[in-house]
Write a structure and sequence with these properties.
This protein is mostly helical. It is built from 5 helices and no strands. The radius of gyration is 31 Å and the shape is elongated.
Length: about 110
């Protein structure tokens, strides 16, 4: 996040330019020579800039519900196949994945 200090610096210069008595009176809600309206009427704006990583995270968060729906549909399909007795597991693919995981762990 990038925070621009220019607005803060301007406010600090304004605040430091008035006397301690005036600061106290302003804090207490008094209008000292129209200064309260001047401070109240000052327009300051903040802005943020999102990094590319933050934008990717935002995109992932938005797409997560869709992925959950797809996963739920796959799960239902597998459950139906198991119930019907038509779900088949390819043992060679399972063995291949086990070996890949083992190799990843030792390297």
């Amino acid at each position: 996040m990038n925070v621009h200090r220019s607005n803060l610096d301007g406010m600090m210069r304004l605040y430091n330019s008035i006397s301690e008595d005036t600061k106290t009176r302003l804090k207490d809600g008094e209008n000292v020579d129209g200064l309260k309206e001047e401070v109240k009427g000052a327009r300051y704006s903040d802005s943020i800039t999102l990094s590319s990583d933050a934008k990717l995270i935002e995109k992932a968060v938005k797409s997560a519900p869709k992925a959950d729906r797809v996963r739920a549909e796959k799960l239902k399909t597998i459950q139906k196949k198991i119930e019907n007795g038509t779900y088949k597991i390819d043992a060679s693919l399972v063995a291949e994945k086990i070996i890949e995981c083992f190799i990843d762990e030792i390297t």
